Amino acid sequence: MLVADQTSVDQALAGLTRNALDLRDFDAVCSGLEFCLATAAVLSDLARKTDRAAFGAVAMRDKDVQKALVRAAGVRTAQCVTVSGAADVAAHPDRFPVVVKPLSGSGALDTFRIDRREDLAEYVRTTATKGPWLVEEFISGAEFQVDGVVRGGEVTFLSMGRYLENIIDIHDGGLVGCIALPPALHTELFETAKVVAQDSLKALEHVDGVFHMEVFVRDGEMIFGECGARVGGGRTDEVVERSFGVNLHDEWVRGVLGRPAAPVAPGAGGTNAVHGDMHLYAPQGLVREAPTKDEVLARPGVVHVELKITPGGTMPDVTSASYLHAGVAVISGADDQEVESRMKELSAWFAASVVTEPSPSPDGP
């Protein structure tokens, strides 16, 4: 059924009513889209398919609620405060630098490091995102992503990836890319990540399904960043399946329907290669020339590619958010150093191969 806003509970209920559909007739109500998770959970609770799923969805979306819950469970995370306007900025915080972000945003949209109170006040006054906002201490460690499966409150599968650069650096032209780490070469890191994931998910009441978590590692300590009840972005799914033989989308469905996790055969993944995924970037503007999919696949190590731009299309300003890009690619290599080298080479080649010109103004010349 068609509704104007699929994140809206009232529009979803109205659409059901218009189409003579009863929530109680469905076996499950769910979503794999981040901004629809809470809506689906509310409808699932209304249908009596779940109990308190809506509260769990809020905990997996609202970053202030999330950090308070994991902190109370003893998991190290950034200290933070919610600000709603200029008066709150005047009162908080008292230490800089800080990171400011929307409470339920994604992809680093409107997420910035801020070094002075005056700049924080300007952000609150001018940002396009409506408040309140979360202001948290800046964590200087290296950023990793942790993806996995939780069943009955136990983490049954976990993968870990190293970002080439911390996601917040996209605003300064940073490259969004992540390389899956082989567990055998990073035993201690994986053991620590599993403990952090286990304790965090328990605090967030996320007991069945998949998760995508960001953590920071600084001076040997792992610090919780944030967590979503969804498959990770980019081509995390491709990287995990090629590396470990685990289909995260299948595991998500199994969790929703209460079915057992799929068995994973020893050596699943089919290769000893290391894999990573990355975003492809190009200059902003009207696209005149761009590489084809086959041309990208012919580059060293590229095993999967999806392109979003073609001649005649428009390339946006990719520094605004991590989900803005010209395409995504999965790269393989003998080790993470080779994958990183191939990623950087591919990024430079692709950007240089795209020809753009300034987009025409909507108001004319």
Keywords:
eight-stranded antiparallel sheet; Dna Ligase, domain 1; four-stranded antiparallel sheet; 11 helices; 365 residues; alpha+beta; D-amino Acid Aminotransferase, Chain A, domain 1
Secondary structure layout:
Blueprint: H1 9-18, H2 37-46, H3 53-59, H4 63-72, E1 80-83, H5 86-91, E2 98-102, E3 112-114, H6 117-126, E4 133-137, E5 142-151, E6 154-163, E7 177-180, H7 187-203, E8 209-218, E9 221-228, H8 236-244, H9 248-257, E10 274-280, E11 285-289, H10 293-297, E12 302-307, E13 314-315, E14 327-333, H11 336-353, E15 355-357
Antiparallel strand pairs: 1-4, 2-3, 2-4, 5-6, 5-8, 6-7, 7-10, 8-9, 10-14, 11-13, 11-15, 12-14
Helix pairs in contact: 2-3
The number of helices is 11
The string of secondary-structure elements, in order, is HHHHEHEEHEEEEHEEHHEEHEEEHE
Please tell me the total number of domains. 3
CATH class of the largest domain, please?
Alpha Beta
In CATH, the topology of the largest domain is named D-amino Acid Aminotransferase, Chain A, domain 1
How would you sum up the major sheet? 8 strands, antiparallel
Per the principal axes of the C-alpha atoms, what is the gross shape? globular
